[in-house]
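Contributing new records

If you add data, match the layout below exactly. Sequence lines come first and carry their own label; structure lines follow with theirs. Keep one chain per record. Anything else will be rejected by the validation script.
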Amino acid sequence: MVIKEEQQQGYSLLTGHILSFVNKLDSFNSKQDVVHSLLEVLSHTFNIQFLSFVEKINDSIQVLCQIGDAESIKNIFNENVSSKIFAWVIDQQQPASLKLGEKNNFIFIPVYDYIQGRKIVHGLVVMYLADYSFNLSKETSKNIKLLSKLSAVSMTRFSLKKDISEPEELDQKNQLESEYLLQIQNILSGSSGNKKILFSVLEDKEAAYNGNFWWISELGAEITLVLIAQADDVHGDKTKFCGSPLAILSGYIMGEMNSLKTKAEISLNPAKVMKYLNEELNDLFKSTGITFNAWYGVFNLEARKVRYSNANHSDPFLIGPEQQISNLVVGNNKKDNPLGLNVNSEYEESVSYISSKSKLVICTSGLVEQAAKIGHKYDPSWLPQVLETIGTLPLKEMSKNLQSILSENVSGTAPKSSRLALLLEMPS
């Protein structure tokens, strides 16, 4: 196998061919489009003799798309052997390598998805490699599985759309699209577990996917890491500010955060985290034209303090024990550049102490701006007044009340809202 040198460097394969693949996902109109692009990526990455995507229809193996000389493998597999290999690889649920004789080296890639616990098998990629000595490494397998998952959720989207009847088409297809993009984001982010800090989330699950996200994780017994981010489009072209590139970028950021949990020298320093994300994902930011306004905080539960950095995000609201409202502002009172605007950006950080019974509300600018619009007037004091009123409630009740109040004031808010808020409280 031949892998270009830059593809051997961790994320280079992902930010190159796979990013190009994801950028095309929104333009695909059928399963065949996805398959053709998938095989194209693999053919540019590996030194192959033959590449094929096969599916099983009525117990028969059928070729949907292929690249290379089919004659070269016709005598290697018969129908019975092909069916057994298909079933075995699908059951393994991961790429499999198979060497036959002294010169035949194959990789089989299952493409499948799960919907409400039901397994959907889309097909199998068959790769006949020109390099017999190649062995499937852990890193290569990880990248192949990523590409397979992205392909599978896209194929599932097309198969589910066919089942939606015309009267219910618009709402269900919009919901399907949001779920699809969240799947892409989650594929790339990995998982995180909390949670000793108390928290509640207000977000518009019914709204169109907007790329906004939150991430909370623990580092040791007394440290909690919190990131909230709102996507923005540096070019101002909202028609391009949607879809798979947005989902993959937010997913990558969360994936990077999960990897940073093992690097305390970075994760405990908010300014270093912002700088790391800004530099590490620079290629992604540049290729998509998307930036992120982000706030990152390191909460020390025992010391009751938070170190934080702000990349052009709205300042969090701090509700004191007497319901007094203030903001957590970085020391220079000047927000740093959003992530993705300039690879050379520098970030500041500050420290604040949070007294017992205090709560922190971190909102995206979309929520803050909407909450401040009362009819045709703009009143920046309105949201702090609301938080002061509901600040004595438990976090979940606070979240419900805030959402209810915003819904009642819908006439004064912007259409197609982009609301996200984290409500946090250190345990007593």
